[in-house]
Design goal:
Low-confidence stretches: none
Order of helices and strands: HHEEHHEHE
Structural class: mainly alpha
Largest sheet: 2 strands, antiparallel
Shape: globular
Oligomer: single chain
Mean pLDDT: 88
Radius of gyration: 15 Å
Amino acid sequence: GLPAIGDMYFDEDDLAGLQQSGQLQAVVLHEMGHVLGFGTHWNALGLLAEPALQGGLDPHFTGAQAIAAFDLAGGTGYVTGAKVPVEDQYGPGTADGHWRESVFFTELMTGILDYGVTPLSAVTVASFADLGYAVDTTQAEPFTLVAPSARPAGARQLHFGPDLLHYPP
């Protein structure tokens, strides 16, 4: 049930700017995550509960390994909703296919790229284990969930927009 092939499309007009800003590698890695099944295979594998695009109010990823990693990253006190929170905003192509921006902020697999540090967290790596991949969570980058008030003000961001295509269409 895992992808054997996949496609990534990039807007040629954006490539030079992304390269110049140092964010091209993060964008490519983000999109590679989707090709491997992040956000694109969750529904089919029963790992997405309460999808926002189907009227759910608290979309969340239900994989046991990602939940454990979420708790280790500081999510034990998360009581706003179910763990692991998935994006519920920004419409098709972003909602139900990324970690929730208001919780994960700078993590690589939110729907908004923060210029600067964009860690590939143990939560994301563990989510691939929940999909069925063999992973090494020790290779994840340092990441801790922070309170919304701790988020740096005025940080530059790039909204990925509708970057998910589900196959078969």
